[in-house]
Amino acid sequence: MPSQPPATPRKRPQQERSQVTVQAILTAAAHILTEAGYDHFTTNKVAERAGVSIGSLYQYFPNKASLLLALAEHHADQMMQLAKDHLETTGDRSIPEVIRQIVAAAVAAHAVNPKLHLVLHEQVPHSEVMRQFDQAKMENLLRSFLVQQCDQLQPKNLDLTVFMVERTIRALIHGAMTEHPEFLQTGELDQELTALLSAYLLKK
């Protein structure tokens, strides 16, 4: 019988003190997950690392699955915020320049705690849920920029274009993270990915 999807957090922090507590829990969870891996990840260890009681942790996260789900969402939010920061200056730039910025934004986003990113996507049960956070946020971000350039794009189906670009970026960057991290460090992947997307997007 298939396992159930992870539970959602029990309550949302409203007051500043509660927000600080939740942030401490998420930070501790990220440290333990990246240092020890999923097999050694427990709510007791997270509570101890965060300096809170296990009861306080359970006020916000009823189980390990809900904590991991919240951590994945928090990580995706951090990635997308950094991507947005990179794309704020696109303005009236040409399509090739915008493509370069999109690639740079995606690479920068995946550089946010890459070890945590890999653990969330490869070790944690329900990792498909984790991927969906990244996928949906990146698709929305891409759509908001590509829709402004529709008249300059070769593909005419915006939904398909967003799908193609997002999957290409994610697959190549994730592959480089796991197999050839040096491609990300040297900037070679940025250049080749920009050329690939430019050939697909730009009118001949």
Notes on the protein architecture:
The structure is a single chain. The protein has helices at residues 16-36, 43-50, 54-60, 64-87, 95-110, 114-122, 127-146, 158-179, 181-186, 188-201. The termini are far apart. The model is unreliable at 1-5 (pLDDT under 50). The protein is elongated and about 60 Å long. 28% of the residues are buried. With 204 residues, it is mostly helical. It has 2 domains: 16-62, Homeodomain-like (Arc Repressor Mutant, subunit A); 69-201, Tetracycline Repressor, domain 2. The longest helix is centred in the middle third of the chain and has 24 residues, at 64-87. Helix content is 72%, strand content 0%. Helix 1 crosses helix 6, helix 4 (64-87) runs antiparallel to helix 5 (95-110) and helix 8 (158-179) runs antiparallel to helix 10.
Write the topology of this structure.
Layout: H1 16-36, H2 43-50, H3 54-60, H4 64-87, H5 95-110, H6 114-122, H7 127-146, H8 158-179, H9 181-186, H10 188-201
Helix pairs in contact: 1-2, 1-6, 4-5, 4-7, 5-8, 5-10, 7-8, 8-10
Characteristic key phrases:
Tetracycline Repressor, domain 2, 2 domains, mainly alpha, disordered N terminus, 204 residues, elongated, 10 helices, Arc Repressor Mutant, subunit A
- Our estimate of the beta-strand percent is under 5%
Backbone shape: elongated
Quickly give the structural class: mainly alpha
Number of helices: 10
Model regions low in confidence, pLDDT < 50 over at least 5 residues: 1-5
Question: What do we call the CATH topology of the largest domain?
Answer: Tetracycline Repressor, domain 2
Average predicted confidence as pLDDT: 84
Number of domains: 2
Q: What series of H and E elements makes up the topology?
A: HHHHHHHHHH
How would you characterize the largest beta sheet? none
CATH architecture of the largest domain: Orthogonal Bundle
C-alpha end-to-end distance: 51 Å
Tell me the total number of β-strands: 0
Q: From the alpha-carbon coordinates, what is the Rg to the nearest angstrom?
A: 19 Å
In percent, how helical is the residue content? over 70%
Give the C-level CATH assignment of the largest domain: Mainly Alpha
